[in-house]
Amino acid sequence: MKAAIVAAAGKAPVYGDFDAPIPSEGQELISVRAAALSNLTKNRASGSHYSSAGIFPAVAGTDGVGLTPDGRRVYFAMPDPPYGSLAELCPIQPRRCVKIPDSLDDITAAAIANPGMSAWAGLVERAHLAAGETVMVNGATGTAGRIAVQLAKHLGAARIIATGRNLRELEEVRQLGADIVIPFALGADNPSGASQYEEALKQAFSAGIDVVIDYLWGDSAKIAIAALSQTIEDRPVRFVQVGTAGGDLSIALPGAALRSAAITLMGSGLGSVSRAALVQSIQNVFQAVQPANLQIATQVVPLAELESVWERATAKPRVVFTIG
Predict the structure, then answer these.
(1) Does one domain contain both 89 and 118?
(2) Cα gap 120→124, rounded to integer Å
(3) The pTM is what?
(4) Looking at residue 77, what DSSP letter applies?
(5) Each residue of 124-171: pLDDT tens digit?
(6) Which of 95, 170, 315, 318 could make an S-S bridge to 111, C-beta 3.0–4.6 Å?
(7) In this structure, is the dihedral angle defined by the CA atoms of residues 285, 287, 288 and 294, taken in order, positive or negative?
(8) What does the buried/exposed string (b/e) look like for 212-231 if buried means 16 or more CB atoms within 10 Å of the residue's CB?
């Protein structure tokens, strides 16, 4: 079968022939139609992700869309190595599959499943967002952040604050449902950037804040927590840490910031959210695409051309490989 083959750790995949899988007992053999290129897919393929199996040669790809032997169209995730979703065929356990609504096309389903799951799990499974609450998305210009803004609006948030580094992209996020956009520029080349960001956040928080969905961590999250501690009074805030796109895996957080305000810090991901809840989150996002008019930018690329886009692909638009 044709597949994206990773020969060794650290090697980019190449398009070629790989032995067709024979499904084990309890597995289904998926005829793959589309699969998105995500950071998780890249990191697992390179062997740098903690969940990488270290088995080579292997087929790249962590999730995709395809048909079961009896013709059901499903989204599937986390196939067992050495097989992956970037191939004509992929064996998978049925519990790792989600039925795709007829109204949802293959490309959108493949592109939105992972970032949609991240956003839904953070907003619903962890934050338990209620209609009428105010939400801030820290890092709203990323793919998952944009979906989080749209889902928060769909779920009844009364006010949505979106932050990010790029003002032009923040204006795009405003069109997706954000009520307030706050750009920031942090670092040595902008010495006043931290104080400017903190003041802008305190002004936005003064009208109320209930949930923070954080995709960045690092300095921007530390500043947000400081602004919360100085602004909120007798109003609990749920701060949900989802990703570290800001580049820092840890921050130095003053204990006084947590003692002086009712801030609940929590994470959202595999472990803090059960596998069953993550699968259900994907199903819920699929059901929400049409009524919420969820938007995600995609670039469709035939699998045979993967070598031309693998290294230079960016998060936006989201590359989706078509197979077969």
Answers:
(1) no
(2) 6
(3) 0.92
(4) E
(5) 999 999 999 999 999 999 999 999 999 999 999 999 999 999 999 999
(6) 318
(7) positive
(8) bbbbbbbbbbbbbbbbbbeb
